[in-house]
Amino acid sequence: MLVLGVDPGLTRCGVGVVEGSPGRARLLAAGVIRTDAGLDTSRRLLAIETGLEEWISQYDLDVVAVERVFAQHNLMTVVGTAQAAAVAMLVAARHNLPVHQHTPSEVKAAITGSGRADKAQVGTMVCRILHLDEAPKPADAADAVALAICHSWRGAAAERLEEAAHLANAQRPGLAQRLHTRKVLA
Amino acid sequence: MLVLGVDPGLTRCGVGVVEGSPGRARLLAAGVIRTDAGLDTSRRLLAIETGLEEWISQYDLDVVAVERVFAQHNLMTVVGTAQAAAVAMLVAARHNLPVHQHTPSEVKAAITGSGRADKAQVGTMVCRILHLDEAPKPADAADAVALAICHSWRGAAAERLEEAAHLANAQRPGLAQRLHTRKVLA
Lengths: 186, 186
What we know:
The structure is a homodimer.
Chain A: E1 2-7, E2 12-21, E3 24-34, H1 41-58, E4 63-67, H2 78-94, E5 99-102, H3 104-112, H4 119-130, H5 139-171, H6 173-185
């Protein structure tokens, strides 16, 4: 599964392309799309769109994973972050790519086993998983890569479960119900 | 000045086209772009983009005015609202249209004279200004129209002040400074 991870931000929007399947992942590219803080927000969003279009056109992606933005995040930056995320989702939808959102704790849990792991732990595990000497830089690129790994691991599992539930639903409604419950609780 | 006002929202995105100059305004059209709450957010943003593209292509607009989203707004909806606003700003920038953001209190103050006016007062004044028997419906369309009126009145004044400051700057730096200060305080 080829995943584009996007760590949204108006000033630095992290991007990472990972080919992954549960338990393994390979880094294809990582970087950031930067926009000038002196520009009007509408022009910054346009610059992010242009950058993302370039990234999306370069790879035969299966899915785009975007960090989920919560209003409880940093109140000073939540609006800008949500707006950069909107551009990523919009560009993906325009390319007919499915979009999945993951919270930072889901990413940490997928990578390190703990939703409360610190940045250093996540960085160490990302290096180990991808066989890198050091984590991609800057931090926004590393976060996007971690998100892409998380999706290729979690997403694939969730999709298999959905498929199984769908199949079972056609055969045995009771099992489908149980599978669905497991997914909700997972 | 032909202004498209946008009251951003994921479920109902209000739009209104107003031709205005300080003290007078004429309504050309108002409506809402609706998206299905059952759709994935990325598809909803795409539907808003498609709708806004249609509106923007129909008129020879001078400017797009979008309600400014604050993180202090309703925490449950702020992310979706910010994302719908991002799509409006992005589409405007793509059409090379300037984008201005106004807060709800700026809109109320421009329309009624008080930043703390209630919805009914704003509605009454919008009808009076546009010579309508009743306010545009639904409320999101009326809000977008009020925003467009606000911009055509406030925006024009601000632009004249900027031009004056620019001219004065070339002639008398002291006056430019004072004009700039007035603008900041306005």
